[in-house]
Design a protein that fits this description.
alpha+beta, TolA/TonB C-terminal domain, 5 strands, 31% helix
């Protein structure tokens, strides 16, 4: 019983000490040039928005694209949209066949410039994940 009381007192006194520690607070964070955001105040936007991106997929893919309500072979990928709006650092997150993964990479390489993301009013790099839904042969 005494050991439980000692442990309780130790933890209680440690908690009081932690409450008195001062944590520095910064009013404005300034993004470094190497920082990549997952969420920015203004997210990057493809020309024409989501509708424009789907239209781009349909017009530029060498393999048929299908809508969400249809059976599909889905390739998940991510890119970094840099401060100038370029799609960079392509990476497959979950692929399908080597051929569909390659088609996806070629598709991304054809993308026009995006409207870049912004943090504190300044363009920043933002990483985004996407999916492309390819028609299956079934």
């Amino acid at each position: 019983m005494k050991s439980l009381l000692c442990i309780f007192l130790f933890l209680f006194s440690y908690g009081l000490k932690a409450q008195n520690e001062k944590i520095p607070i910064t009013k404005e964070s300034k993004p470094s040039t190497e920082e990549v955001f997952r969420i920015a105040e203004e997210m990057p936007e493809f020309p024409g928005g989501e509708v424009g991106l789907q239209k781009f997929y349909h017009e530029n893919s060498t393999h048929p694209i299908v809508e969400k309500d249809r059976k599909a072979a889905v390739v998940y990928y991510e890119i970094i949209i840099d401060e100038e709006g370029n799609a960079t650092k392509f990476r497959i997150l979950r692929g399908q066949s080597e051929a569909l993964n390659q088609i996806t990479e070629e598709l991304v390489s054809k993308m026009p410039k995006w409207k870049p993301g912004k943090q504190n009013g300044k363009p920043v790099k933002v990483i985004k994940a996407f999916e492309v839904r390819y028609a299956t042969l079934d």
